[in-house]
Amino acid sequence: MQAFQDLYPEDLSHCYGCGRNNPHGHQLKSYWDDDETIALFTPKSFHTAIPGFVYGGLIASLIDCHGTGSASAAAARAFCDSSQEPPRFVTAALNIDYLAPTPMGIELELRGVIREIKPKKVVLDISLIAAGVTCAKGHMVAVKMPASMMIEA
Amino acid sequence: MQAFQDLYPEDLSHCYGCGRNNPHGHQLKSYWDDDETIALFTPKSFHTAIPGFVYGGLIASLIDCHGTGSASAAAARAFCDSSQEPPRFVTAALNIDYLAPTPMGIELELRGVIREIKPKKVVLDISLIAAGVTCAKGHMVAVKMPASMMIEA
């Protein structure tokens, strides 16, 4: 089973959060789980907020990259046939409620629920769960990457 | 002039985004600029989204840490005398609109405007500006760090 991010084109796979071609980054991998999407990630010991807890910026990053990946997969499933490359999505709006401190030292689960799919816009909710507790809830509007973001090599 | 984050207590200065005691992290520094707050940050070459642009997770991280730092400073200015330690704030809600792709290779400016100050809650807006262009706008609700987040050493 290939991760959504592993289906991105080679020249659009350098994202620090989820690009397979970024050796410095998190290389987040997202998958279908029935009609929801899932990714797992264990923060490094230095991804600290207050000691013992994960910093909010990483939580935002994980929700963001799981969201754009899920948007790509959802749009591909809805509008593309198997010969077509999945469209690449970027974030237009990201809202996160931090509900509880996210503990360090355990694997985090990201779970996405697609709320709306149009060819150029996907709306979704993403939960970040630690040991069964939802620590953050994200709501995202993702839009198809505009052609103006393609820099010619 | 000391940065807001350099006034955090020693044992609460390990944040990956802004802690002076986290050698792996971004060590963001925020300051007053009249009644607004400002921080400057130049992303590393590997903080990529699509090649040429900064990834959204870093943008969220910078807005988040500039926001909690600004909240701490605003609450200290409003409610503390000079003998008291500034209160440490954490993020309850973070909303970001990504208005334009953020270009790599230049210094980014974060600018905070305090909208509401209570002893345990600060609301603020934060703009991320690249070469005069506002690329992202954040709205944050920061709350005083609950005692339950203090882990005894």
TrEMBL record, chains A, B:
Pfam families: 4HBT. Gene3D superfamilies: Hotdog Thioesterase (3.10.129.10). It comes from the Bacteria. Residues 52-131 form the Thioesterase domain. This is Thioesterase.
